[in-house]
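Quick start: what a row looks like.
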Amino acid sequence: MSKVSVGMKRLLVGRPFRSDTIGAARLRKRIALPVFASDALSSVAYAPQEIFLVLSMGGMSALTFTPWVGLAVAVVMLVVIACYRQNVRAYPSGGGDYEVATVNLGPNAGLGVGAALLIDYVLTVAVSIAAAAENIGSAIPFIHDNKALFAVAAIAVLAAVNLRGIRESGAMFAIPVYTFMAAMSVLIVWGLFQVEVLGRDLTAESSGFTLVTPDGLSVTGLALVFIVAKSFAAGCAALTGVEAIHTGVPAFRKPRARNAATTLGMLGVLAVTFLLGLLELARRLGVQIAENPSAQLSGAPEDYRQKTMIAQLAQPVFSDFPVGFYLTMAVTGLILVLAANTAFHGFPMLASVLAKDQYLPRQLATRGDRLAFSNGIILLAVAAATLVIIFDARVTVLIQLYIVGVFVAFTLGQWGMIRHWNRRLGREEDAGKRGRIKRARAVNATGLVLTAGVLLIVMLTKFLSGAYIAVLGMIVIFAVMKSIRQHYRSVARELEDSSWEVVLPSRTHCVVLVSKLHLPTLRALAYARATRPDTIEALTVNIDTADTKALVREWGDRGITVPLKVVESPYREINRPVVEYVTRLRTQSPRDVVIVYIPEYVVGHWWEQFLHNQSALRLKSRLLYERGVMVTSVPWQLSSSRGRAQQARDAPLIGRWGGPEAR
């Protein structure tokens, strides 16, 4: 078998829990670290700000908890990263938590993870693009005033680029990712150096404002504990990029599992360092972030426009070098856009795996002309743009929905890994290996406790704030996927029923529908006669007496031998009289097959569709439900369709034919 045949077979048949083989091969030839770093580090741009934002509800006294909240988030992040370093070694095929949960906990658990991750990918795009709009808007007021419009346009551009097909070259991701790393490092180190060593009095533009609660009262007791817990839950958004590396293991060079684990560790250390560094610098510079600046920031001017945390830090730190401020904001916005772009790879891939497992429509498993899962890309773009429009591109609101799905996947994934180690332990007799398995199980057990705890905190603190929408979304998607699976199974059972005996029809009766005696009608008559049916007749519906009489007269003048029948339509309706006539034919001769020939135009431009009625399409859709009736379209190609015909002939095979997946 040739290499081309082998490649085509792999492409069409597919492999379970396998990421895009072609895309992964291209990526391995370049640099995998920058591609996944964009997703793993992008949360640094908004997670510290969300911690400050939630703590602002408790007034100035609550800001003393910022370092402790940051440390708690850092601990959870390091534990989760340690867990996922084991996950990628145990399951390096690229299935992620969906594979772990399905293999170890069963299909329902895997399906729950799949639903959670689908929601997570959509929110990754929405949150990342909204955060990019906020950060770029801090430097460009026009974008700040039109965040939703900018976000929708950015999503549309990303979708268009991915539909065209892109090769994730090292330069495309490496330059902005490494520039972002350098910008954050310089911002934190140079800012703290100026404050601690040079003794400069650096202050954020909001440091002179007084932060108060909306009602003017201080929050204490259980209310303060609740706010600190909610702040911790918001900061845990920094963990959202971990899953991307687990599902992207096949994109790394060999040994893939070890390289993926190393990359995960490196990015985890960087993310924790940036998170804690930004929180400390923000505390030193007196940054104030409020959900409602006009009501919560006393002393702020009436036209005050609140900037993001990174903008409030970069402005004083780079006060002597304004280019540094604009560069930091530009690269922050770019890294967030690239993070959204990783979801345009992950969502279609996950959807294709679920579609191959018959949990989603099969169209999501079919590749387009450029080997991209076009339907998945379009679905993701539409869903993310809808969320952005509904919530007006507000990161504060969108992030309430965000981390629920992530930690559902984390929790089920860690539970599945414990089951995995328990099975390994039952088969292993070597004492040394048993010890290593027990340590690995202990790490995943710790991860399970922490991720389940975070999930509980998220549900308690964010449920009414918007997390319930994500929960409902996951429940609905889970139920829909179960229904789709049941539908495919019932269809397969019905189609494979061997008890049905093939009985040939006694006769064939052809009915040619006629509206006017023009070229499409003459072609339909010719094709119908060429099939040599037992009986043939033409049928027209009388909706205008004068036109019908003219048609009957012309029919006789031309000497057409096919009899023309006229059925009345008292309400000037076409479809019902035709269907009733065909039904009567079937009732009179149940063993006959009725073939209905429908002439129709074929136009080349989309706008031409609106200039012709769609009666043929509606009639075909209605006749399909009639047993013993076959519908045959007889196309008449108008001159405008010639260009489209050439395009169809020039199109590559893949994309026009779905292969075995389309069956």
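That is the whole record. The two ends are 24 Å apart (CA to CA). Residues 1-31, 653-663 have pLDDT under 50 and may be disordered.
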